[in-house]
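Re-run with default settings, no changes from the original entry. Doing this only to confirm the output is reproducible before filing.
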Amino acid sequence: MADLYEEILKIKAEGGSAALATIIGKEGSTPRETGAKMLVREDGTIFGTIGGGCLEGQVIEEAIKVIREEKPRTLHYDLTGREAAGAGMICGGVLDIYIEPIIPTPTVFIFGGGHISLFVSKISAMAGFQVAVIDDRAQFASTERFPEAEQVIAEKFSLTFPQLKVNRSSYLVIVTRGHAGDQEVLEWAITTEARYIGMIGSGKKIRTLYQNLEKKGIAPERLQRVFAPIGLEIGALTPEEIAVSIVGQMIQVRRETQKGKAPGSCS
């Protein structure tokens, strides 16, 4: 059991997600006893077991749904009927299995403290993200300006990079006040494991920044994971609307239902 919880801590530290399946009730003959646990990772691999066979395969499928939806569920299995026998589950008992999501809350790192950032921060917090804001101007990076942010840093971007705990559950939003800042942050961002990287700008600006980075030896393939121009295509014009489009895209990626514009698009 200690090893299982060590694995959970490891997954959280890496910014991953998982689901924990626990037998919470049983009657009759079943593969494992009440309290048996199985950890299911995002890729469907497991740690521990609740009995193996077809039953375990079904629980893994349900656990992946729990990871995606971030909502627990309780499953009831009757291993006494014809259906169970047909599936090879002939133990002859009844099982109740509780599956709970194991997630660290995702963090969005917003680079730039301007008007769009104000609303990205507010909406992100409302949507269940932790928020960190970074700007190289103290008057734009303050807790008064971003009261909902858990972290606000007023420092040169390059000096903040080593401080930021970016992992596979991190979302990076690049909306600095100029091309130079955007390029500096982007060059660092593509070296991270962040789940989402988005950068604001016109197609022309983005192509220029990409060309600059390619001249520095960065492979074009590494830029394909970037959502640029950032946000869903909803015709957004105002800072508030643009923020809605950005957070909406982050939610798509979080729920793994991304459709439409592919990362790396400069159209």
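Residues 2-102 form one domain. The chain is about 35% helix and 20% strand.
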